[in-house]
Write a structure and sequence with these properties.
- The protein has 15 helices and 42 strands.
- It is of the alpha+beta class.
- The strands form eight sheets. Strands 2, 3, 4, 5, 7, 14, 15, 16 and 18 form a nine-stranded antiparallel sheet that branches. Strands 27-28-29-30-31-32-33-34 form an eight-stranded parallel barrel.
- It has four domains: 5-256, Sandwich (Jelly Rolls); 262-364, Macroglobulin (MG2) domain (Immunoglobulin-like); 372-694, TIM Barrel, CATH 3.20.20.80; 697-787.
- Strand 39 (742-746) and strand 40 (752-753) form a beta hairpin.
- 20% of the residues lie in helices and 31% in strands.
């Protein structure tokens, strides 16, 4: 479920009240329109968000922006990238309408909006409707859009065309509530507070605009703060007495703002996936250039930073002749003992204040990719079908043991395997590739060809893939032919994908149950030892659908049940609190049989490791920083095993991450980052594989609620995965291990963590998981030590 916040009618947002401060404090953006439509100061992106032409004219204080319907006086637009804070803030500006506010020929007049880039949703709509100002917040969840309205504020009768007025909004999403206050001419005129509303007030990338065809007029002295201004401060702004103070603050802040001199900086690695062994030398070519308006430089610097921001050695490179042109230089990064994800950083000022992330790579233990893919392994993923060799090699490096054929090898789909009746197409090259790399395979039986859906005249592939087949015997024949053809390489088959999703299955729950029974019988006819995975990735939020499906008796026609077990990627959560498995088992009990459960799709969402692609993402970034996402993924892998999941398939690994593609989709679940190198999520996955593949879950230690402690048995000893459930400061965790036991700690990137003491061992824990490997110690003894601390 993804929550997106929209500000529709009127204005926007929230309120609060910190102690009195100088108006320069927390100033994020200021536009006085004295010299054009671009901001005079912006803490983040400075480029205009709306192309011209723009027209300036006499304003409330000096020049202002003029907006009309001529096409020659466009609205002003400011990119929200880093210029707006979701948690709290203030917007202030002056407005002079060109229409009479009692004129109702245009019922909705939009003064300020924030549309998202590339069609995304935005926030902040300041609206006049029937002579009233109003505003609301909205969000989208699995049940649709929800709107939360504020009181409306009547416009004073003295508002006339050509008269200036001041508008301000404050918002405050701290402390579990969400408060918005609207001010007109320095006086509060509308307030609303709601409990339990996430403070997310804008889209990932948006443009804050002023003016529209419905609200022509003049706009002046636009300012944004990253804090809630007091009523007294807003009164000063409305009176005009604070204009000079804000202008001076903007000038001083702009003068002190570091100048980004780079036009571009990119790196290309000799390993296309950027994944290297722990002892390998990373070889790459770094290209960079400066903006034409900046002075040439005679030297530059580069270094490597890890996921935690810790820098390595800084190297100075002298330029034989001062240059601003494109420069290319080979890099050789020798192993320094660190593992994990790293970014290459370049700078062209001696103080290294203005820097650019040029690319990222990873170091992984080579043993992860050298271990065999055992049939009982927990760890799987979706390796994208395009460029399969690239994905297979990287998949093996990070420890993927199973591949699910949905979006990996689509050749077993019915529409591919039998595009016309009796015309069989085999994808042995793909299947053999996965077998050659040693992967275990979960084939998929799904997606109706047009002819079998009753539309033989349509030649568009997959046009009717979601329709139930008109003849179940034709479907049974397809299953027999495909399972029989691949039975020497594929022994596990999943029937359909997400049949509760209309885009994949347009039939009823009962029809899917009958289809599953047909598939089971047909597959067992040609390969009695094969394993059939039913459900296609069920969503147990819709229990009625699942109940109807199981009422067909199809539970006896599956050897495993598959679910799609995504955690909510927006709201804070504890993975232990998820109840999907409990609901699944209760539903199976109702229908008289329990089968093991596989999670055939799971993912967490993350931003890029590269800070150039994190700019402008606001408060959403804090929820999706790569470091936090890595912690979420490891916890998911651990808790899924603890809750009895037999197999886990991460979705997905796909090599399509150009810098532009990542910028257009800044939060996604791809195991590949910009530049098509492995993302930190891939490294975290590999760390979990390194410590848990071949281990057996034993118990969740009974500790206080602040500690997550999961114990596994492993050859020669035990391993525990530990984390704190909140970030409160606590003393080290002290463990008394059995005599002769030795312990080692590892972080999310698989680096050894120093452990204090021997008897007891002292562990400093945070919210990020720690892998504690203990040799010569049974899992039960480690569990007792954790519970007795």
């Amino acid at each position: 479920m993804v929550r997106v916040f929209l500000f529709i009618p009127l204005v926007l947002l929230l309120c609060g009240g910190p102690a009195e401060a100088a108006l320069r404090d927390g100033l994020y953006l200021y536009a006085g329109f004295e010299h054009g439509a671009a901001p005079d100061y912006a803490i983040g992106a400075e480029e205009p968000g709306v192309p011209g032409p723009h027209r300036l004219g006499p304003g409330r204080h000096g020049q202002c922006l003029v907006v009309d319907n001529s096409g020659q006086a466009q609205p002003a637009g400011f990119l929200t990238q880093t210029n707006l804070d979701n948690d709290q803030g203030t917007l202030s500006f002056f407005f002079c309408p060109d229409w009479d506010w009692t004129d109702q020929t245009i019922p909705l007049r939009f003064l300020s909006t924030m549309p998202g880039i590339d069609g995304g949703n935005g926030w902040l709509i300041l609206r006049n409707q029937h002579n009233h100002l109003a505003f609301c917040t909205g969000y989208l969840d699995a049940t649709g859009w929800h709107w939360e309205w504020s009181p409306t504020a009547p416009v004073p009768a003295h508002w006339k065309p050509g008269e200036w007025h001041h508008l301000a909004v404050t918002w405050d999403g701290r402390g579990g509530s969400f408060t918005r206050v609207l001010y007109l001419d320095g006086q509060e005129c509308g307030r609303v507070t709601q409990q339990g509303v996430t403070a997310a007030v804008k889209s990932d990338r948006a443009v804050l605009t002023f003016g529209s065809e419905s609200a022509p007029g003049r706009y002046d002295e636009v300012a944004l703060w990253g804090r809630v201004l007091t009523a007294a401060e807003i009164a000063r702004l409305a009176s005009g007495e604070a204009v000079d103070e804000v202008r001076q603050a903007a000038r001083e802040l702009q003068a002190r703002k570091p100048v980004d001199r780079f036009a571009a900086a990119t790196v290309a690695f000799d390993e296309a996936d950027g994944a290297y062994g722990e002892k390998a030398t990373v070889r790459a070519r770094l290209s960079w250039s400066l903006k034409p308006e900046v002075a040439p430089v005679s030297a530059w610097w580069w270094w490597v930073e890890d996921l935690y921001g810790r820098p390595g050695k800084v190297t100075r490179v002298a330029c034989p002749a001062p240059t601003r042109a494109v420069n290319e230089v080979p890099l050789a990064i020798h192993p320094d003992g660190r593992l994990g994800a790293f970014r290459i950083v370049v700078a062209v000022d001696a103080r290294r204040q203005v820097r650019r992330d040029a690319g990222s790579f990873a170091r992984l233990p080579e043993r992860i990719g050298q271990q065999p893919c055992r049939e009982d392994s927990f760890f799987g993923a979706h390796l994208w079908w395009e460029q399969p060799e690239f994905h297979c090699r990287l998949g093996r490096k990070i420890g993927v043991r199973w591949v699910r054929f949905h979006d990996t090898c689509n050749g077993t789909w019915w529409a591919h395997a039998e595009p016309q009746p009796g015309q069989w197409v085999w994808f042995d090259e793909y299947v053999d590739r996965y077998a050659r790399h040693g992967f275990q395979m979960l084939g998929t039986l799904s997606f109706t060809p047009n002819w079998a859906a009753g539309h033989p005249e349509n030649t568009t592939l997959f046009a009717f893939r979601h329709l139930p087949p008109t003849n179940l015997e034709a479907f049974a024949n397809y299953v027999r032919r495909v399972v029989g053809h691949y039975k020497d390489r594929i022994h596990y088959w999943e029937v359909w994908n997400e049949p509760q999703h209309g885009g994949f299955w347009a039939g009823t729950a009962e029809e899917y149950g009958e289809l599953l029974k047909v598939a089971y019988r047909a597959a067992k006819e040609v390969d009695p030892t094969c394993t059939i995975v039913g459900g296609g990735g069920l969503n147990f939020a819709d229990l009625a659908w699942v109940d109807r499906m199981l009422s067909t008796g199809c539970l006896s026609s599956m050897d495993r049940l598959s679910i799609h077990y995504y955690y909510d990627e927006v709201r804070p959560r504890r993975p232990e609190d998820q109840t999907i498995l409990q609901r699944a088992r209760e539903m199976m009990a109702k229908h008289g049989r329990q089968v093991p459960i596989w999670n055939t799709e799971h993912a967490v969402y993350s931003a890029s490791l590269l800070r150039e692609l994190q700019r402008g993402l606001g408060q959403e970034l804090q929820r999706h920083l790569p470091r936090a996402a890595c912690a979420d993924l490891i916890k998911a892998l651990v808790v899924n095993q603890a809750q009895g999941i037999e197999r886990f398939f991460y979705y997905a690994m796909r090599r399509n991450e150009s810098w532009a593609a990542r910028a257009a989709n800044p939060f996604n679940q791809n195991l590949i980052d910009a530049g098509n190198t492995v993302h930190p999520l891939g490294v975290a996955y590999a760390t979990a594989v390194d410590h848990l593949d071949g281990a057996r879950f034993v118990a969740q230690a009974a500790t206080d609620d602040s500690l997550g402690a999961y114990v596994f048995s492993r050859p020669g000893g035990a391993v525990a995965v530990l984390w704190r459930r909140d970030d409160r400061a606590r003393p080290p965790l002290r463990l008394r291990l059995p005599a002769g036991a030795s312990a080692r700690g590892f972080d999310m990137m698989n680096n050894a963590r120093a452990l204090a003491g021997k008897a007891p061992v002292a562990l400093r824990l945070g919210t990020e998981p720690l892998f504690l490997e203990v040799d010569r110690c049974p899992a039960a003894a480690l569990q007792r030590a954790l519970e007795a601390r």
